[in-house]
């Protein structure tokens, strides 16, 4: 249907309504001669008293759960020989990530070999001492000294092995492998083949478990009275504009951020499908229901004209009137009215613009 036809139909309806009213002399378009087909298309709803709800829209950002991210900083200096992962890879705990060479680890490795040789000598001496003790040639004190020497050597070897396990898995020839400390996704990588690393350098890599993330929300001082822990929230993102994520405020900071001048509210979200990515911006919608009763009507019923709001009410079948109302906030598809309307009145929500135009012509 063309725009000209639409305009023509609207003009015809308005003309019919106006002429019918002028003929009858009754106000509010009351006339049994009004087009019955048009009246059938008029839809009304009753104005009702509801507990008033308030809707607050805040900005937020998806962040890592700090309890589920590990950044690896080497305890010793070395050179990376080879890497086995890329940024964004999923890794399992214990999986090799890179090989490194280190003079410090090589020194520990040499010390371990020397101590293992001493261990063999101490074991042989202990066997000899045990045999001589059995033949009553050696005293018990000398036997205990031989046992103590072996135990000391073994303790030193175990200490070196424990120290080396902290740095990585020994592959021999001065090469050690660093393994993934947890399962998750590689979210940061600075380790490159041939690069040097040290305790003072940036983390070689970071692994995060993204099945749980935080949504951190900025709460301004003017909105603080409407925000509390435990409130249900709806979260929307630009990446998924047609999808709503549901959560609740788990905690609310008691200290304002000195730079952003906001309080930070935290929402912990289960993220098994990994749709929520760290650093992703989010819009957080909070809904608060008060015990204040207010008159509610569908927002679509409101007509803005001449810097005022109006609604069309059906006073009785076929009889309409325009009322000037004062809105007092809205939430979703509902608007709250502070004056100009009464509970139970039938508010027109379909064809109200046509009827309003006809009423203005009177």
List the defining traits of the structure above:
conserved putative lor/sdh protein from methanococcus maripaludis s2 fold; five-stranded antiparallel β-sheet; alpha+beta; Elongation Factor Tu (Ef-tu), domain 3; OB fold (Dihydrolipoamide Acetyltransferase, E2P); 27% helix; 362 residues; 22 strands; eleven-stranded antiparallel β-sheet; 5 helices
Question: What would you note in describing this structure?
Answer:
This protein has 362 residues and is α+β, with helices and mostly antiparallel strands. The protein has four domains: 3-51 and 292-360, conserved putative lor/sdh protein from methanococcus maripaludis s2 fold; 56-67 and 209-290, Efflux pump adaptor protein, beta barrel domain (Elongation Factor Tu (Ef-tu), domain 3); 70-98 and 180-207, RNA polymerase II/Efflux pump adaptor protein, barrel-sandwich hybrid domain (OB fold (Dihydrolipoamide Acetyltransferase, E2P), Beta Barrel), CATH 2.40.50; 103-173, Helix Hairpins. Helix content is 27%, strand content 39%. The protein contains five helices and 22 strands. The chain is rod-shaped, with a radius of gyration of 39 Å. The two termini are 29 Å apart. Mean pLDDT is 82; it is low at 1-34.
- % residues in beta strands: 35-45%
CATH topology of the largest domain: conserved putative lor/sdh protein from methanococcus maripaludis s2 fold
Could you estimate the helical fraction of the residues in percent? 25-40%
* Secondary structural class: alpha+beta
What is the class of the largest domain in the CATH system? Answer: Mainly Beta
Envelope shape: rod-shaped
Architecture of the largest domain in CATH? Beta Barrel
* Whole-number count of domains: 4
Taking the sheet with the most strands, its summary is: 11 strands, antiparallel
How many beta strands in the DSSP annotation? 22
Number of helices: 5
Instruction: Indicate the low-confidence ranges by residue numbers.
Output: 1-34
Q: Compute the CA-based radius of gyration.
A: 39 Å
Succession of helices and strands: HHEEEEEEHHEEEEEEEEEEEEEEEEH
């Amino acid at each position: 249907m063309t725009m000209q036809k639409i305009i023509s139909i609207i003009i015809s309806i308005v003309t019919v309504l106006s002429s019918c009213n002028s003929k009858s002399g009754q106000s509010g378009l009351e006339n049994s001669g009004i087009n019955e087909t048009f009246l059938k298309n008029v839809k009304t709803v009753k104005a009702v008293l509801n507990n008033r709800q308030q809707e607050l829209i805040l900005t937020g950002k998806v962040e890592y759960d700090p309890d589920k991210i590990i950044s690896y900083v080497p305890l010793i200096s070395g050179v990376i020989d080879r890497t086995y992962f890329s940024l964004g890879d999923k890794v399992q705990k214990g999986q090799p990530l890179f090989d490194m060479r280190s003079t410090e680890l090589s020194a520990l490795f040499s010390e371990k070999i020397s101590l293992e040789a001493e261990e063999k000598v101490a074991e042989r001496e202990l066997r000899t001492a045990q045999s001589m003790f059995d033949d009553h040639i050696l005293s018990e004190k000398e036997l205990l000294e031989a046992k103590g020497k072996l135990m000391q050597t073994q303790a030193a070897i175990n200490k070196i092995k424990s120290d080396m396990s902290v740095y990585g898995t020994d592959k021999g020839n001065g090469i050690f492998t660093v393994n993934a400390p947890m399962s998750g996704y590689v979210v940061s990588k600075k380790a490159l083949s041939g690069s040097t690393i040290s305790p003072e350098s940036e983390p070689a890599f970071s692994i995060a478990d993204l099945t749980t993330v935080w949504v951190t929300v900025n709460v301004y001082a003017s909105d603080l009275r409407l925000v509390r822990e435990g409130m249900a929230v709806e979260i929307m993102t630009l990446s998924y504009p047609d999808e709503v994520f549901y959560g609740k405020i788990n905690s609310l900071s008691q200290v304002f951020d000195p730079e952003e001048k906001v309080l930070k509210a935290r929402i912990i979200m289960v993220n098994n499908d990994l749709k929520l990515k760290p650093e992703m911006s989010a819009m957080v919608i909070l809904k608060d229901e008060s015990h204040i009763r207010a008159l509610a009507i569908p927002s679509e019923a409101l007509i803005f004209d001449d810097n005022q709001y109006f609604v069309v009410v059906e006073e009785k079948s076929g009889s309409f009137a325009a009322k000037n109302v004062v809105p007092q906030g809205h939430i979703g598809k509902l608007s709250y009215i502070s004056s100009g309307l009464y509970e139970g009145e039938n508010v027109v929500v379909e064809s109200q613009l046509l009827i309003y135009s006809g009423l203005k012509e009177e």
